[in-house]
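ok posting inputs for the uracil job
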Amino acid sequence: MNQIRLDKFISERTEYSRSVIKQLVKSGKVLVDGKAAKAADMKIIPGENMVCVDGNEIRESRFRYILLNKPAGYVCSTDDKDGETVMKLLPPEMRTKNMFPAGRLDKDSLGALLITDDGELAHRILAPKSHIPKIYIVKLDRPFESEYINKFKNGITLKDGEQCLPAKVRRAENCEKLAFVELCEGKYHQVKRMFAAVENHVETLMRISLGGLVLPEKLAVGECMELLHKDVENLLKPTDFDDFCARFDPVFSAFLINNQM
Ligand code: URA
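and the output
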């Protein structure tokens, strides 16, 4: 691999300009293999030298994959005409020029959101044909009814007549108003409209997995993390809904009960 200038390496992978990088180097915030970089124009070998800015590793990969635990109040867009966007929540060293949120969560929804510049992967995750399941936990206005299970399984017809693909739903163990839902498609306000179709109402919605990628317990609402290659591969792996709920019911139910109710 060819050597390149440190400031070029960083500026191509972040939103820092070369002049800001120079300042960061001067203040000792840029490390190469664990040692403060001596000059912004020093040469490094991408993939061999480890570069960190302000404690965050700048990765060699062409594409970046950031997992955000989205808080309520931000829109999933790169354009702030409809309000503050999730892009604002990314620290500059995690942003590259062409990043966008891969998929939508409503402004008032929380949870797992992938932000990437890899359009092909985003398409694979979102296309209903690729059957990548997304799991949500919802807090309902009224108690869960066991008849929802078959209704969701047979494909809900929304109030406006639109037909949904078969989906899975299950009540959380210790709370009659919490439910887990698994969908393989992403219609506008889909989970909310599915519960409206069975005469219930979603008060809080949190996405807790994208394919085999589970929102880590340690990732607080509003925080984001760079995904490793193996995490990105997990995205494309199938999950078993019942196993998932059995493992994560206490974790996510506790979160919604303690923080949102
Ligand atoms: N379904 C909804 O209704 N809202 C979301 O944010 C995601 C899925």
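notes: The first helix runs from residue 6 to 13. The first strand starts at residue 4 and ends at 5.
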